[in-house]
Write a structure and sequence with these properties.
Blueprint lengths: L4 E5 L6 H16 L5 E5 L5 H5 L6 E5 L16 H6 L4 E4 L2 H6 L4 H13 L3 E6 L3 H5 L3 H12 L12 E4 L13 H18 L2 H6 L1 E5 L7 H5 L6 E4 L6 H8 L3
Parallel strand pairs: 1-2, 1-8, 2-3, 3-4, 4-5, 5-6, 6-7, 7-8
The chain binds 1,3-dihydroxyacetonephosphate.
């Protein structure tokens, strides 16, 4: 019932030429994989070039989104601008935004609600640091991020929200959560959603795993019951490895 979603977060990488080339290659794989959704989040400046080659099956996302439509918000991107550029979704609360740019749950919540208000599907990114995991505070951290991130958010269609569990210690480090660790976190998040929304909504929201997903580990991660997709950084920058991830078994 939950269509798998494989998402590539390009972060601050690639020239326009490289972006268009990679997107064209990924679009071909997406065309050939009708039973799964494929998404990329390129840098804002590459959205137009990527859109031009994306075809109908490669979805686009912003790497972040402002809560306002327009105004004096230097350095931000409007949800309307993302829509106009062809985006269906937007990441909010990515670990790098939280930790390098000090975005807190309240700001993440504003971004998420702004995205939804303008018809963008937010991908709410959550995840514990190594210190939080080591001190036994993983679930507590996730609960706070989910509850505060979704504060005052109504959800009547499970397709209108995606959650991405990305343990901070697994991002860009080559360390991945073991399949059982990922499943535990995902199951916990789904239970939290069931406390906030109708049962069928919680059962329908897709929860992606992110953190050093690659061609070699994607199959065992995707085999977990509550893992509905992957949010991939480094390994989404090569057509070859991202193709293998999209074609997970
Ligand atoms: P890596 O796949 O490079 O660890 O990055 C994960 C991530 O942050 C995706 O948003």
């Amino acid at each position: 019932m939950r269509v798998p979603l494989i998402a590539g977060n390009w972060k601050m990488h690639l020239t326009l030429t490289e972006a268009a080339e990679l997107a064209a290659a990924v679009a071909r794989v997406a065309e050939a994989s009708p039973d799964r959704e494929v998404l990329i989040a390129p840098p804002f400046t590459a959205l137009a070039a990527v859109k031009a080659v994306a075809g109908s099956r490669l979805l686009l996302a912003g790497q972040n989104v402002c809560w306002e439509e327009k105004g004096a918000f230097t350095g931000e991107i409007s949800p309307l601008m993302l829509r106009e550029a062809g985006c269906r979704m937007a990441l909010v609360g990515h670990s790098e935004r939280r930790h390098l740019f000090h975005e807190d749950n309240r700001m993440v919540n504003r971004r998420l609600r702004g995205a939804m208000a303008h018809g963008l599907i937010p991908i709410l990114c959550i995840g514990e640091t190594l210190a939080e995991r080591d001190s036994g505070r993983t679930l507590e951290t996730l609960e706070k991020q989910v509850r505060e991130g979704l504060d005052e958010v109504e959800l009547v269609d499970p397709a209108k929200l995606v959650v991405a569990y990305e343990p901070v210690w697994a991002i860009g480090t080559g360390k991945t959560a073991g399949p059982a660790q990922a499943q535990e976190a995902h199951h916990f998040v789904r239970r939290l959603l069931a406390g906030l929304y109708e049962k069928n909504i919680a059962a329908g929201v897709r929860i992606l795993y992110g953190g050093s997903v690659n061609a070699a580990n994607v199959d065992e991660i995707m085999a977990q019951a509550d893992v509905d997709g992957a949010l991939v950084g480094g390994a989404s920058l090569s057509a070859e490895s991202f193709e293998r991830i999209i074609r997970f078994n």
